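Hi everyone,

Forwarding the result from last night's run.
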Amino acid sequence: MCFGGSKEYDAYKSGDFQSWKGAFDQRAAVQTALAKGEIDQATADARLAALGSNPDLENKIKGDPSADMERREVVRQNDVGLGKIGIDKNFSSFNDNYYKGYQDSYTGFYNPQLDRQYDKAVGKTTAAMADRGTLNSSVGSNAFADLFRQNSEAKTNIASEGIDASNKLRGTVENAKSSLYSLNEASADPQAINAQAMGQATALVAPPTYSPLGEVFASALGGLSNFQQARQNRPTKQYSSPFPSGYGSGTVVQ
């Protein structure tokens, strides 16, 4: 006696999976173009409407466990791809020009402060050397040379710290993107990832805050101040005139 039975549904042999995959790829291409900004929302909606959808075919494929597993992975990979596009798009402003601008912003904040301090230090040193009568001496030359050296070293330090600040920001941005990529791979939720990427990128472009520049020439000016104070506070010698009364007496300041 022969018993007959219905054959198990095979989405691949029936061609259903291939049909679904072809239609899905067309819709995915429209979604990708929209995510990249290659088309606007109205154009995307029109194209998707023209392509239509076939939920009955998708539900039918779910009857084949193997095909349905592949279907779900195809959908997930598309969502991951859309999420990555969103991340990259939101972080696109962080390029080499941006980091160079950040570095220039750092040096642009501190260099003018240094220039003002240097001009002030030169002015005070000039006055002090003139008061000593050593403005054109080797002592004066050495004092100005020391100020110039300190100024050059400070400018070099500011430039180096500007590079460090830029590199630190670059590292922060790359770490943020890496974390978002991992989250995107795990969640496969492009809308949520795009929102998070937008929020983090916006926070990272907030204007930096800098502390005022410290007194670079404090030690040099401190030495001049000590000299001036010692000059003002030095003791005086009183003496009696050796001449007969009537010629007066005097005070010598040495």
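The longest strand covers residues 237-239.

Cheers,
N.
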